[in-house]
Amino acid sequence: IPANRTYIGEKISSSISDDIFNSVSDIAKRFKISNYTVFLVALYICLYKYTKQADIVIGSPVANRSMLKNNNIIGMFVNNLAFRAKILPDQTVSKFLKYVNDLILQDLDNQCYPYDHLIKKLHLSADNSKNPLFDIMFSYQNQSDNLNLPEDVHYLPVDTKTSKFNITLEIVPKTQQINIEYRTDLFKKE
């Protein structure tokens, strides 16, 4: 890892097949959890398999509109949550699904606590090569855009050639798209 973090990145986009999306939905229904949780668990397991690290922290943005006083204010109220999961080698996937779901519910109770305050409170040492709590971001874009655009108008993908985190995995269920943004000084497209 370079001594100083760069933000130069690339983005890979692909579609998720109907079969996979339906399988994720079936698993979510069977375990009474969200599709978000199933995808997050899949990311944890993938990272565990690649890195052999059992203690993994993944960041995830939340809309942070849970406070009534913010409902009539225009603007974005996004906060990052840091989900820390410990994977046990003999743990079944079904137990891990329940564990991560419980973890998410507990962390959502604290979503109003500002991320910047958390970093200061933890007294994390400054390291210019990485983010303080997590280097992997998971985003599940399940919000509708509420724009009544004509059918012949489409969003154009924007590639800024940047990556704020080492890897950002974004799932867009409405279009069944998966986007992976990554730092090019750490990873190759292959």
Structure overview:
By secondary structure, the chain is α+β, with helices and mostly antiparallel strands. It contains four helices and six strands; from the N terminus they run βααββααβββ. It has helices at residues 18-31, 35-51, 93-108, 115-122; strands spanning 9-15, 55-62, 79-86, 136-140, 167-172, 177-183. The chain has a four-stranded mixed beta sheet with strand order 1-6-5-4, with helices on one face. Strands 2-3 form a two-stranded antiparallel ribbon. It is globular. The two termini are 18 Å apart. The mean pLDDT is 87.
The separation of the N and C termini measures: 18 Å
Distinct helical segment count = 4
Structural class: alpha+beta
Mean pLDDT: 87
Helix content estimate: 25-40%
